[in-house]
Amino acid sequence: MAEVTLEVNRREQTGKEVAKKLRREGKVPAVVYGGHREPVAIAVDRKAVSELVQKSEHGIRSVFLLKMAGSDQQRHAMIKDLTIDPISRKMTHIDFVRVVMDEVVRVTVPVHVSGTAAGVKEGGLLDFQVRELHVECLPNAIPDSIEVDVAPLGSHDYFRIKDLKLPEGVKVLDDPERVVVGVTHARAEVTDATAEGAAGTAEPEVIKKGKPDEEKK
């Protein structure tokens, strides 16, 4: 797939009012850092970023060329953090990080489960605990996701991070003993606990009813 290029403009001025003006013009204030160089304040067209994510092979985790408008400066980069306004759902700020293609990067990758666990077919519940992983790898080895086939899981079985099959060259930075997904009977256990709790509250109720008589003495 052809390498995608995103053109950006250097921001000579910063501050809240400048950022508001940029957003009204359909641009997003941003910063690019890393790559053994100083951070640089930039602005990027909001529509161009959306198209970049759609066209890139790995979406928001893609590595692309960041080109400074009006110059021949360009560097490989990727989106490190993207802030979305909770009401308008528009991008309000972006952190880009420069990428050196022969140096490892640290990114967050989603976990996807597939199949139907054997324990679920028997009435259990699928307990999906870890939905994303922090991984380390070379830029051209960033996976779209980590796939987990849960079909072999029986009742009270689980997969830990150390049990996952990872793409070549990808290292997970999270605790290897952490449970990613398993099959439980939590609903039945909660029901039993609720019943026991209800039975346990019966005695205090009786005591409370007897208290006024004691106060009269």
Architecture overview:
By secondary structure, the chain is an alpha+beta fold. It has 2 domains: 96 residues, Ribosomal Protein L25, Chain P; 85 residues, RNA Polymerase Alpha Subunit, Chain A, domain 2. The chain has 5 helices and 13 strands. Strands 1-3-2-6-5-4 form a 6-stranded mixed beta barrel. It is elongated, with a radius of gyration of 26 Å. The relative contact order is 0.12. The C terminus is likely disordered.
Q: Can you tell me the CATH superfamily of the largest domain?
A: Ribosomal Protein L25, Chain P
What is the name of the CATH class of the largest domain? Mainly Beta
| CATH 2nd-level architecture of the largest domain | Beta Barrel
What does the overall shape look like? elongated
CATH topology of the largest domain: Ribosomal Protein L25, Chain P
In angstroms, what separates the terminal alpha carbons?
Answer: 89 Å
Spatially, the strands of the biggest sheet line up as 1-3-2-6-5-4
Give the proportion of residues in helices.
10-25%
Note the beta-strand portion.
35-45%
Counting DSSP H or I runs of 4 or more residues, the number of helices is 5
Profile the largest sheet.
6 strands, mixed, barrel
Structural class: alpha+beta
Order of helices and strands: EHEEHEEEEHEEEEEEHH
Number of extended strands: 13
- Rg from C-alpha positions? 26 Å
Task: Report the average pLDDT across residues.
Answer: 85
The tally of domains stands at 2
Uncertain segments: 190-195, 198-217
